[in-house]
Amino acid sequence: MAAAVGGSRAVVNAVSLYVERGERTFERVHVEAAADLAAASRDVGVERFIQISGIGSDAKSRSPYIQARGRGEEAVKAAFPGAVIVRPSVMTGPDDAFITTIARLVRLLPVYPLFGEGSTLLQPVYVEDVAEAVCRLALGQNSTDASIFECAGPRIYSYRELVREIAAQLRVRVRTVPVPFAIWSILATATEFLPAAALTRNQVDLMRLDNVAAKDLPGLKELDIQPGGIEDVIRMIEHAA
Questions:
Q1: Which domain holds residue 169?
Q2: Would residue 144 count as lying in a domain?
Q3: Is the overall model pTM greater than 0.85, yes or no?
Q4: What distance in Å separates the CA atoms of residue 132 and residue 23, rounded to the nearest whole number?
């Protein structure tokens, strides 16, 4: 790690893991490896360290994934004083695993299954807006010395509203049906160990929690970034198709 980051002014850790396999565990990737990289960066004189985390990360969560993300933040701060934590909301863009998937399914399915009642709140953010935020932080182009930034899009949706908005943008009719989280957990347990798992228990855990930027933390606005809406992303998805 020291050889890899030597001579760098800034280091960004964007490594993540959704499914544990063998030695690739949440503890190893989100906590130990993040701390190791932060320490190596500190030791070779890197000026800025940025840890990509996620809104909702919580070291006290009962979800192993969410807990590891929160503990990873703490480990990075301990290893690299002055490290900046970037917590994006659910990120969107062409060929993503979220908006693109919903867009495909509302076209294919006669009935769209919601997570629970579809009441979870989401604030989707365009991935390039997050990338621009990371670049500005890496270059020191921020007017605040805050150590945590939460990056989110311009609008808050319930999951149900988001599905219907995507369908409306695609000019298709959609009928939604609530599906209990217990059912989703069973499905995820059965599929997450497949080579290309479409759903994991950790993703189900995330969908139980609102994914909205905190009002008392800086974000894209404080970095002078005007966030794009999902309408732009859907147009890009249609163009790519």
A1: 90-125+154-213+226-241
A2: no
A3: yes
A4: 33
Structural domains in the chain (count): 1
Q: How far is CA 39 from the centre of its chain?
A: 24
| CATH code where residue 108 lies | 3.90.25.10
The reported pLDDT for the residue numbered 83 is: 97
- Per-residue pLDDT of 178-232, as tens digits, reads 999 999 999 998 887 776 667 888 889 889 999 999 999 999 999 999 999 999 9
For the chain, the C-alpha Rg in angstroms (whole number) is 19
Give the separation between CA 26 and CA 123, rounded to whole angstroms: 25
**198 in a domain, yes or no?**
yes
Structural tokens at position 207: 């969908």
Residue 104 has φ and ψ, to the nearest 5°, of: -70, -40
Q: Where are the alpha helices (DSSP H) in 80-158?
A: 99-108, 127-138
Residue 72 located in a structural domain: no
Residues for the chain: how many in total?
Answer: 241
User: Per the domain annotation, does 78 fall within a domain?
Assistant: no
pLDDT band at 143 (very low <50, low <70, confident <90, very high): confident
DSSP classification of residue 148: E
Burial 173-189 (b: 16+ CB within 10 A, else e): ebebeebeeeebeebbe
Residue 86, both tokens: 């970037």
